[in-house]
Amino acid sequence: MRSGHPWLFADSIHEQNRAGNTGELAVIYDRKDEFLAVGLYDPDSPIRVRVLHAGKPQTIDASWWRNRLQETLARREGLFDAQTNGYRCINGESDGWPGLVLDRYGDALVLKLYTAAWLPRLGELVPLIRETQAGERLILRLSRNIQRLAEKEFKHADGEILYGPGLNEPVIFLETGLRFEADVLRGQKTGFFLDQRENRRKVEALAKGRAVLNAFSFSGGFSLYAARGGAKSVTDLDISAHALASAERNFKLNADIPAVAGCPHEMVQADTFEWLDKSANRKFDLIILDPPSLAKREAERAGAIRAYGKLVAAGIRCLNNGSVLLAASCSAHVSADEFFAVVRQTAAGSGRKFVELETSLHAPDHAARFKEAEYLKAIYLRFDK
């Protein structure tokens, strides 16, 4: 608590004066009965209290919430221009809103909750968002572990529109001038992977004249940037037919861009690990390896590190000389140091000469301000032989 960590686990509570209700403000004291922090109480979670404020006592009222939101939004000032209207407005604990994110997709706002502690506070939170954020509608998304409680106790459902007109199709937003669809009602996360924006921009700068493979391509974000950047061809590889169909629609949304319209776009539905193993005879000049989390719990960490090594080795075998490999990880249980180490070791073990171009972590609107929030990392290698 004193060092700024935003979670109080149930096992760390020495004494509790009464049973608390979901979403109540819980005041935390140290062994000398001195104030430590105040946060949102969640009796059904091992993270029993999610800290809102630590240090000197403060009154948590409507004015406090409004100031907290204004401070959060101020951190985004100057980050985006009119060519990008898809970005994160509130990034959970790292912005002082534990267990809550708010994303913008054009005129649509998506509020995602990861703890039930926010559910009884929607009545005061929603008007505050509506007051401070321009937007046609606000959609509620709920973490899977709280959906049943939300429906039974609080009468809220995943995909519910909290205000604004109904919606039966994905919304369209801009990212660096490219048009994308976001399935804000049912899609993964809040509808799109906004956190890879900066890496997509780097891929565009690297893509000219290259044959590009986008493995675990999802809705084709990296591929669209590569096509606009002048790629010779792009191949989307994903096991999901639904994801590939979304990628195809995203390409059609940008058909008025000559470089996109003129870039050959192949889509392959297959397991990436198996396809790479069987396709070593196919060569590419730029390969993006951006798998979903391979370690969703600590017990899976060692296996994930081995899987990353296997994946990178397979990708290297499919690279031409002078080609670039982008390897990314969104597994919070695998640290950046561990991930970069296995990629470097695998590259060294390939026997090929390579140069490390750069590494990257979180986008500025997804800043991570405590260890458990650190999940995204990427490394770029160029193989000269």
UniProtKB/TrEMBL annotation:
<dbReference type="GO" id="GO:0032259">
    <property type="term" value="P:methylation"/>
</dbReference>
<dbReference type="Pfam" id="PF10672">
    <property type="entry name" value="Methyltrans_SAM"/>
</dbReference>
<dbReference type="InterPro" id="IPR041532">
    <property type="entry name" value="RlmI-like_PUA"/>
</dbReference>
<feature type="domain" description="RlmI-like PUA">
    <location>
        <begin position="1"/>
        <end position="52"/>
    </location>
</feature>
<dbReference type="InterPro" id="IPR019614">
    <property type="entry name" value="SAM-dep_methyl-trfase"/>
</dbReference>
<protein>
    <submittedName>
        <fullName>Uncharacterized protein</fullName>
    </submittedName>
</protein>
<dbReference type="GO" id="GO:0005737">
    <property type="term" value="C:cytoplasm"/>
</dbReference>
<keyword id="KW-0489">Methyltransferase</keyword>
<dbReference type="InterPro" id="IPR036974">
    <property type="entry name" value="PUA_sf"/>
</dbReference>
<keyword id="KW-0963">Cytoplasm</keyword>
<dbReference type="GO" id="GO:0003723">
    <property type="term" value="F:RNA binding"/>
</dbReference>
<feature type="domain" description="S-adenosylmethionine-dependent methyltransferase">
    <location>
        <begin position="161"/>
        <end position="359"/>
    </location>
</feature>
<dbReference type="InterPro" id="IPR015947">
    <property type="entry name" value="PUA-like_sf"/>
</dbReference>
<comment type="similarity">
    <text>Belongs to the methyltransferase superfamily. RlmI family.</text>
</comment>
<keyword id="KW-0949">S-adenosyl-L-methionine</keyword>
<dbReference type="Pfam" id="PF17785">
    <property type="entry name" value="PUA_3"/>
</dbReference>
<dbReference type="InterPro" id="IPR029063">
    <property type="entry name" value="SAM-dependent_MTases_sf"/>
</dbReference>
<dbReference type="GO" id="GO:0008168">
    <property type="term" value="F:methyltransferase activity"/>
</dbReference>
<keyword id="KW-0808">Transferase</keyword>
